[in-house]
Amino acid sequence: MQGYIQVYTGNGKGKTTAAIGLAIRALGAGKKILFLQFMKSKVYSEHAILVNLSDNLTLETTGKPFFIVKEGMLNKAELAKWGDDIVVFPPGKPPTDYLALMKTGIVRAKEAVTSGQYDIVILDEINVALFFGLISLSDVQDILASKLATVEVVLTGRGAPQEIIDCADLVTEMQEVKHYYAKGIEARLGIEN
Length: 193
What we know:
With 193 residues, the protein is an alpha/beta fold. The protein has helices at residues 15-28, 46-53, 76-82, 96-114, 126-131, 137-146, 162-167; strands at 5-9, 33-38, 57-62, 67-70, 86-89, 120-124, 152-156, 170-173.
């Protein structure tokens, strides 16, 4: 089977959810999947089920239990709302411990797309890691260029750069039309978290 490059991006909800749906469908067809999450730790509800769902699904994370943002992205009120759950860094100077985690993720992703061990490799939130400068565009391009012809690769996260969109075979942009976040509703367990 020919493997293609898929990108799920945009500001709307559902990118990771779509990737999970694809993984479930692929499991039903006997495929082997690596679901590699960048910038996430195992605190999301999907981790409670995906880790034990099938021997054909491997779930790994490269992240810490806090969010990061570039200096100037959030105002004081927004930062206060996050409290200790967020780390702010100057543009171009992300936390070194986060950079080390992302490097591990890049090495793992390249190994996964070249080993022949997986039919599908999902790189969840890799576009966001690119946006924050935690990984380089050339690293991601190298992963995509080295993949075996039979491996399907899925890249998720808002803000996919044009270079990634250009090399993809399928691009879906999730567009936010309306969201209850605007009413102050926080992430809900089992829905967004």
